[in-house]
Design goal:
The strands form 7 sheets. Strands 15-12-14-13-17-18 form a 6-stranded antiparallel sheet. Strands 5-6-10-8-9 form a 5-stranded antiparallel sheet. A 4-stranded mixed sheet has the order 1-2-4-3, with helices on one face. A hairpin with a 5-residue loop joins β8 and β9. About 55% of the residues are buried. By secondary structure, it is of the alpha/beta class. The N terminus is likely disordered. α10 runs antiparallel to α15 and α12 crosses α14. It binds flavin-adenine dinucleotide and iron/sulfur cluster (2 copies). One iron/sulfur cluster binds next to α21, α22, α24 and α25.
Length: about 1000
């Protein structure tokens, strides 16, 4: 029966203790076997509100290994939970079971028949990867779920997933042609067309006969009670295997959430990629009207009709990245818009449909309400805004979060307006509200009421769910579950919707496939109560342990709250665009993923991994491959900032365990750099005398396979005074506006000693402070010289801020932060801020060359120093290229750059340049050189990441990161192509891995100056 019950718990058979189960898996399964508390914790959640510790995890290396794991679990009576990316929203992928993770190894295309438009894949294949492989054939798999970058085909089939264009292509169930699956009894069958059943093995025939008997018996009840909307993903698809008509038996497995069988291979139907797309943005003065009129719009045969409501439009407008896009497609202040897409082969047809849409909207009383978008690039941008709206909503800080539990009820379009009105009133009654968006075309609107699941959320959730269920039942043919499946949150609502009799029939189906109830128990049949708080991520009594943090986490409401921001959507598993998350890209491990780290931290901070978990070696292992690239800071939809969290953890770790010699050597580099530079010939012996590199590996753990950066005896800060003649009259005259003195008469005198020291009256808009970072200063001073010359050639007066104490050069504290030495970093930063503040107060730009150093002044500084101290300097801090791009955009930059013999530049972005959106600046600045073509490598982290790549234990991983795309691109580049990289360690990696010398953009520009300018030094 489908009534709520206690969830099944793993009871190891008396004869087999859990540990012997684990040992047997280790012995017999070719795969990773993870039974430690940290690993199990990482697999205890999905994108739902639930958390259940699995018995253990197996990551099989082969299909045979998956079979063996399955067999051992069945024999031991241990439940089994197949898993893809774990992005289910309803709790499908959590359970007290042996988790079999397909995503790392079982992710290949097995067979592609492009002519027939069919492909066979393993279950761990990710949708975007599949579509990338299909693109050259002009084909795609069109179930375009929002999680396409991470969702696996096995998981999509498990949930009967649906994409934005389901009105054209249908759901998963309409696009799966067959599934080869193991039953828990050990049989392996290809489930496919009903006409093939007779040719199947006897066991298969017998099974299908019984399935048909149940379906035949319930045909009348199915006709009477089963939802009729396209988006119906509740229970097993019994309505699709009625024996009266031809059908496909794999459709019973689609949407079965791993409760019937384990899919080994899936045969999919492919579609041609439509060549022509146009988009109409329909504006509505009221939300109700948008809902009411959707039913007319779908008659025009669109490929998608997606809703974006007022709240989301406002959120998108408030986001700097999207404001300009929204302004291009939004007219006035509509209460809602519908994005209506038409796609196909012929442009004329699509344009005609777009024109029809405009006429239709006028006929419906809204003339002039359609913005027609035919530019493909703008269409792409608009779809990005639509997707990002949810992400912005999910980034809500604090304990109240939008919760997914009724977010995809599907109602016939004629009832859409009434349904949304009534559900909004239900929310109001319970003191909450929700934002509506998504698939209007098929009556499936996403809405998540904001609830606090740590306090009264569970009660409100049940009350709202009950009313929503009753509401859905009022509309004939509607489905309570229209996209995300049943899982833990919705299985108990199957019976109220389908009735007792059909719920019983589903139990019979389960019994036929899995008589011992071992496949993903507690989902679809025999569910727990959705509001059983013992199954929640935030269980009763959940509380973070007290921690005296080194960084300021008040922006999140505490360090624990920052870790809790991860909602497990799995976006950090993406592999193509952007940089998040390099360590996962090369390992494929949940442990080395932003999500895995955030979950581990949350569990540790709330005491669920035992005492001292935060400073345990297992926690260190969890974070050690995080290269602090800050990719997640920018790309994680909820803004999980693991680089910052790592600093906090390392701070506590180093306090408990101390620091090794290597860590000290690297961390304190800025402090000993002045004398190391004086002793450069001695310091550089390590790479000159044979055997010393090997000794440095043995004693210090510095990889012998790496050369170290060579110390220079001529650091920039020593030679700079010779280089800063005041700007000539000629160069000042180049820009009248720039040479106007700032009104600085009321300011205090500049306290910093600096070459070309300025007094209050002489501060000019042409003044620039160049931040000489430790790395460029002591290892590549020519970059700072080049930057100075470029700035001077542009008519700027360059200064270097020196510390008030007149001592060693300034430093941002980055090397200390990397070791968790927060106090030392704070001291460095304070010194730097004090030195820069007088310049910043006069609005003098502070320009830096090394991305990780400069951005410390825009990022970590706020976690280390009081905001009022840091803000002024932070506002003025710019990367060299950002400064030049800004000046150019303002029409103030006149650099006399000349065409070079090298016509092509291959650009690799430092992770922090990407994280802070500075790539377009460096690209545009390079393009100032006449005739230079700039190609940017689509790369993630180069793998060096400060000291990471020099560390012996990380050398291999570091090279793997570089080999993902950077090094192959550099090797492929013609010999006369300039390789450009602004990060010191990136340049080192390019040198080590591809034998090419990369240049900082400052040197590239300097080389393009007329000869007399570039030789002034
Ligand atoms: C932000 C966000 C947006 C989303 N957008 C959409 C959307 O647009 N459309 C949509 O439909 N869904 C959406 N989802 C839900 C989810 O992403 C999809 O259901 C996705 O297809 C699940 O894929 P997965 O690889 O993560 O599967 P998992 O969560 O790992 O697994 C899903 C189910 O499949 C089962 N399963 C996995 N592999 C196998 C196997 N080999 N054999 C048998 N069973 C197996 C699992 O046991 C589980 O029950 C969204 C989720 C989030 C967090
Ligand atoms: S870390 Fe961010 S991107 Fe990754 S799962 Fe968590 S919320 Fe999503
Ligand atoms: S900082 Fe980079 S490596 Fe670390 S978790 Fe974030 S994306 Fe991954």
């Amino acid at each position: 029966m489908n009534a709520p019950a206690a969830p099944l718990q793993f009871q190891p058979r008396a004869t087999r203790a859990a540990s012997s189960f684990e040992q047997q898996l280790r012995k017999e399964v070719d795969g990773e076997v993870l039974f430690d508390a940290f690993s199990r914790g990482r697999y205890s959640t999905d994108a739902s509100i639930y958390q259940i510790d699995p018995v253990g995890v197996v990551v099989p290396r082969s299909e045979e290994a998956a079979r063996v794991a399955l067999e051992i679990a069945v024999e031991a009576g241990v439940p089994i939970l197949p898993r893809g990316a774990g992005t289910s929203q309803c709790g499908q992928t959590v359970g007290a079971a042996l988790v079999i993770d397909n995503s790392k190894y079982l992710n290949q295309v097995v067979e592609l028949d492009a002519a027939a438009g069919e492909v066979v894949v393993q279950p761990g294949m990710v949708l975007d990867r599949l579509n990338a492989a299909l693109k050259p054939h002009g084909l795609w798999f069109p179930v375009d779920v929002s999680t396409s970058a991470q969702a696996t085909i096995g998981g999509m089939a498990g949930n009967n997933s649906c994409g934005s264009r389901s009105i054209r292509y249908g759901n998963m169930v309409h696009n799966v042609l067959g599934i080869e699956a193991w039953l828990p009894g050990g049989d392996l069958f290809w489930f496919g067309p009903s006409e093939d059943v007779e040719r199947g093995p006897s066991g298969y025939r017998a099974l299908i006969e019984k399935v048909h008997a149940v379906a035949r018996r319930e045909a009348t009840e199915i006709e009477a009670r089963w939802p009729k909307v396209l988006r119906r993903v509740q229970g097993y698809n019994l309505d699709m295997v009625l024996p009266q008509a031809p059908h496909n038996l794999s459709h019973l497995l689609v949407g079965s959430e791993g409760t019937l069988a384990y899919s080994r291979r899936l045969r999919l139907k492919l579609s041609p990629i439509p060549q022509q797309k146009v988009l109409g943005v329909c504006h509505f003065p009221s939300f109700h009207q948008a809902m009411d009129l959707t039913r007319h719009i779908v008659k025009l045969d669109p490929d998608a009709v997606e809703l974006v409501d007022r709240t989301m439009l406002d959120l998108a407008r408030g986001n700097a990245a999207f404001r300009a896009i929204v302004d291009r497609f939004l007219k006035g202040e509509p209460d809602a818009v519908l994005l209506v897409e038409f796609a196909g082969e012929e442009r004329a047809t699509q344009l005609r449909k777009l024109a029809d849409l405009t006429v239709l909207m006028a006929d419906l009383g809204l003339p002039g309400s359609v913005v027609e978008i035919t530019d493909p690039a703008l269409q792409r941008d608009i779809w990005e805004v639509r997707k990002a709206g949810l992400n912005i909503m999910m980034s809500m800080k604090g304990d109240g979060k939008p919760v997914s539990f009724i977010e995809d009820c599907a109602v016939p379009l004629e009832h859409l307006a009434e349904y949304t009105d009534k559900l909004t009133r239900v929310f109001e009654k319970h003191g909450t509200k929700g934002t509506w968006y998504a698939h209007a075309s098929v009556g499936t609107l996403h809405v998540r009421p904001v609830l606090n699941m740590k306090t009264d959320g569970a009660g409100k959730m049940r009350a709202i769910a009950e009313e929503a269920c009753a509401l859905v039942k009022q509309f004939k043919g509607a489905a309570y579950s229209g996209e995300h499946g049943d899982g833990l949150v919705r299985s108990e609502w199957i019976e109220p919707i389908l009735g007792e009799r059909l719920a019983h029939a589903l139990s019979e189906i389960k019994e036929l496939f899995d008589p011992r109830g071992l496949m993903n128990p507690g989902k679809i049949v025999r569910p727990a109560r959705m509001d059983d708080r013992s199954l929640f991520r935030f269980k009763p009594g959940y509380a973070a342990q007290k921690l005296d943090t080194a960084l300021d986490w008040s922006e999140w409401g505490g360090f624990d709250r920052a870790a809790e921001m991860c909602n497990n959507n799995g976006h950090c598993r993406k592999f193509d665009a952007g940089s998040m998350c390099p360590s996962f890209r090369v390992t494929g491990d949940e442990q080395h993923l932003t999500r895995g780290r955030a979950n581990t931290l949350r569990l540790a901070l709330s005491g669920q991994l035992g005492a001292d978990a935060l400073t345990s070696p297992a926690m260190y292992d969890t974070l050690q491959l995080c290269v602090s690239c800050k990719g997640c800071r920018r790309e994680c939809p909820t803004g999980v900032d693991m680089a910052k969290m790592k600093i906090e953890v390392l701070h506590h770790y180093s306090r408990r365990h101390g620091l090794g010699a290597r860590q000290r050597l690297i961390a304190f580099l800025p402090r000993y750099a002045p004398w190391a530079s004086r002793l450069a010939p001695v310091m550089n012996l390590r790479d000159r005398i044979p055997g010393l590199a090997a000794l440095s590996e043995r004693w210090l753990g510095l990889s012998a396979k790496r050369s170290l950066p060579a110390w220079r005896r001529d650091p920039f800060t020593q030679s700079f005074p010779r280089l800063t003649p005041p700007p000539s009259e000629e160069s000042r005259a180049k820009s009248d506006s720039r040479s106007q003195p700032l009104d600085a008469t009321s300011l205090p005198p500049v306290a910093t000693g600096a070459p070309g020291e300025i007094s209050r009256a002489s501060v000019q808009t042409s003044d620039v402070v160049l931040l000489a970072d430790t790395f460029n200063n002591y290892f590549e001073p020519e970059n700072l010289h080049a930057a100075t010359l470029v700035l001077q050639a542009g008519g700027y007066r360059v200064h270097i801020a020196r510390p008030a104490d007149g001592g060693r050069p300034l430093c941002c504290g980055r090397t200390f932060l990397a070791a968790g030495l927060v106090e030392e970093a704070r001291a460095e930063l304070r010194r730097t801020i004090e030195a820069l503040a007088p310049w910043a107060e006069r609005r003098v730009p502070i320009v830096g060359l090394e991305p990780s150093c400069l951005f410390t002044l825009r990022d970590e500084v706020f976690a280390l120093l009081p905001r009022q101290d840091a803000e002024t300097v932070s506002r003025q801090a710019l990367l060299f290229e950002e400064f030049l791009a800004r000046e150019d955009a303002a029409g103030r930059l006149r650099l006399p750059l000349e065409q070079q013999s090298a016509r092509h530049a291959l650009l690799h972005g430092h992770c922090h340049q990407k994280a802070f959106g500075a790539m377009s600046a460096v690209e545009s600045v390079l393009r100032l050189i006449p005739g230079l073509e700039v190609e940017t490598v689509t790369s993630s982290c180069c793998g060096m990441a400060g000291a990471f790549g020099y560390e012996a234990e990380h050398f291999e991983i570091s090279m793997k990161m570089a080999e993902l795309s950077l090094l192959p691109a550099v090797r492929k580049a013609a010999s006369d192509t300039m390789v450009v990289a602004d990060g010191t360690s990136c340049r080192h990696q390019i040198h080590d891995g591809a034998g090419r010398e990369a240049m900082h953009v400052a040197r590239v520009l300097c080389a393009a100056l007329p000869r007399n300018e570039s030789r002034r030094s």
